[in-house]
C-alpha cells in the first residue's frame, strides 16, 4: 500500500541490553496455553518491539503499519551507545509530516513510563531509498574489561563480581591473572594483526549455518585505558580494577566475530595463547575453530555507526 505523504526517517537510539533478547525481533508472536481453551500471546522481549510500540504512540496515529529496519543486530545482553534504524511514517493529514522532535519526545516518554532501558537520541528525515543497514559506512564496537589489580591464580580463589564497582555490574568483564595485569604489548600486537582484510572463519560461530563469505575488513583495532579521573571516585571498588577498552571498527562483522576477537586478545594477554597462534588462525582459516573462548555479552557496546550524509539526508 502506498501513501502520498510517506516520509522515511533515520533514527539513532541507545540501550542497555541486559534485560532484552537482542535488538531484532525474531518471533513476534508465540502462542501458549496457560489454561484450557484460552490462547495467550507471549511478547517478544526485543528492542525492535519496544521501538515499534513507542512509535505507535504517535499522535495523530500514522496511517501505515509501524515497522522499523534495524541497521546492526546485537545479541541478548549487548549494549549500544548508538544503534540506528529506518522508519517510514504516513501522516493522516494531507501535506503534513511528523516533526523529528515530536517523534523523539513521544518515544522517550513511552520508554520512561514503561521502564525500558532505551533512549531515542536523534531523528533525521532521509531519502525514500535510504536503507539503514546498507548505507552504513562503518560500525565501531567497544568491549570493556575490568582487570583485577591483585594477582589471582584461579577464579575459585575469589568471586570477581565482588570486586566490581556497582556501576560496572553487567557493563564490563572482570578479568584476573596470576600477575595481576595483562600483557598489553602482546595484546596490541594481535590488534595490529586484525587490521586489514582477512578471512575470519576461525572467529565465526560454528553453531550458526552461514554461507556468506567470511572475509571482513577491520579498519581500526586498539586498546585504550580509562583514566581514574573518568571513573566514579565515590565507589572505593574502583581501586580494585583497571578499566581497559578494546575498540574494533569495520564495515560489517560475522556473527560473534567481535566477541571472539576479544576472547583471543584476552587469552594472549593472560599468556594462554601466543601472538603466533592468533596469526595462524588468520592465515589458516578455520584452524582456530573451537579454540577461542567467547566472552559474555555484558561488556560489549555498539559504540558508533557512520553514514555518508551526501544525498541521503533531506
UniProtKB/TrEMBL annotation:
Q: Where does substrate bind?
A: 141
Tell me the domain of life: Eukaryota
Q: What class of enzyme is it?
A: isomerase
Q: Which reaction does it catalyse?
A: uridine(38/39/40) in tRNA = pseudouridine(38/39/40) in tRNA
Q: Name one GO molecular function term.
A: tRNA pseudouridine(38-40) synthase activity
| Gene3D superfamilies assigned to the protein according to its UniProt record, in alphabetical order | Pseudouridine synthase I, catalytic domain, C-terminal subdomain, Pseudouridine synthase I, catalytic domain, N-terminal subdomain
SUPFAM superfamilies, per the entry: Pseudouridine synthase
Keyword annotations for this protein, in alphabetical order, are: Isomerase, tRNA processing
The record places domain Pseudouridine synthase I TruA alpha/beta at 191-308
Instruction: Offer one example of a GO biological process linked to this entry.
Output: tRNA pseudouridine synthesis
User: What InterPro entries does its record include?
Assistant: PsdUridine_synth_cat_dom_sf (IPR020103), PsdUridine_synth_TruA (IPR001406), PsdUridine_synth_TruA_a/b_dom (IPR020097), PsdUridine_synth_TruA_C (IPR020095), TruA/RsuA/RluB/E/F_N (IPR020094)
Identify the EC number(s).
Answer: 5.4.99.12
- The active site of this protein is located at 75
Pfam families xref list:
PseudoU_synth_1 (PF01416)
Q: Is Isomerase included in the keywords of this UniProt record?
A: yes
HAMAP family listed in its UniProt record: TruA
> What family is this protein classified in?
Belongs to the tRNA pseudouridine synthase TruA family.
Q: Which PANTHER family match?
A: PSEUDOURIDYLATE SYNTHASE, TRNA PSEUDOURIDINE SYNTHASE-LIKE 1
Q: What is this protein identified as?
A: tRNA pseudouridine synthase
Q: Which organism is it from?
A: Leptotrombidium deliense
Amino acid at each position: 500500500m502506498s501513501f502520498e505523504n510517506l516520509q522515511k526517517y533515520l533514527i539513532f537510539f541507545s540501550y542497555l541490553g541486559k534485560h532484552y533478547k537482542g535488538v531484532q525481533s525474531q518471533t513476534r508472536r508465540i502462542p501458549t496455553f496457560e489454561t484450557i481453551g484460552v490462547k495467550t500471546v507471549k511478547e517478544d522481549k526485543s528492542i525492535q518491539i519496544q521501538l515499534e510500540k513507542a512509535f505507535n504512540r504517535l499522535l495523530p496515529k500514522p496511517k501505515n503499519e509501524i515497522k522499523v529496519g534495524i541497521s546492526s543486530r546485537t545479541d541478548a545482553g549487548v549494549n549500544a551507545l548508538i544503534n540506528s534504524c529506518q522508519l517510514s511514517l504516513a501522516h493522516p493529514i494531507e501535506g503534513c509530516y511528523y516533526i523529528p522532535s515530536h517523534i523523539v519526545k513521544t518515544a522517550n516518554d513511552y520508554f520512561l513510563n514503561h521502564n525500558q532501558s532505551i533512549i531515542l537520541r536523534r531523528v533525521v528525515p532521509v531519502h525514500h531509498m535510504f536503507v539503514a543497514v546498507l548505507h552504513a559506512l562503518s560500525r565501531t564496537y567497544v568491549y570493556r574489561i575490568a582487570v583485577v589489580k591483585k594477582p589471582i591464580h584461579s577464579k575459585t580463589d575469589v568471586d570477581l563480581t565482588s570486586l566490581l564497582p556497582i556501576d560496572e555490574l553487567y557493563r564490563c568483564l572482570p578479568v584476573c591473572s596470576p600477575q595481576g595485569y595483562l600483557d598489553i604489548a602482546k595484546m596490541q600486537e594481535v590488534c595490529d594483526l586484525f587490521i586489514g582484510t582477512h578471512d575470519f572463519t576461525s572467529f565465526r560461530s560454528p553453531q550458526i549455518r552461514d554461507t556468506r563469505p567470511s572475509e571482513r575488513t577491520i579498519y581500526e583495532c586498539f586498546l585504550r585505558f580509562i583514566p581514574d579521573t573518568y571513573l566514579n571516585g565515590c565507589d572505593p571498588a574502583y581501586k580494585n580494577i583497571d578499566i581497559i577498552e578494546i575498540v574494533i571498527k569495520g564495515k560489517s562483522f560475522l556473527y560473534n566475530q567481535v566477541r571472539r576477537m576479544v576472547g583471543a586478545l584476552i587469552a594472549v594477554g593472560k599468556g594462554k595463547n601466543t601472538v603466533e597462534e592468533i596469526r595462524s588462525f588468520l592465515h589458516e582459516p578455520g584452524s582456530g575453530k573451537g579454540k577461542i573462548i567467547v566472552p559474555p555479552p555484558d561488556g560489549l557496546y555498539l559504540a558508533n555507526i557512520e553514514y555518508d550524509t551526501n544525498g541521503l539526508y533531506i
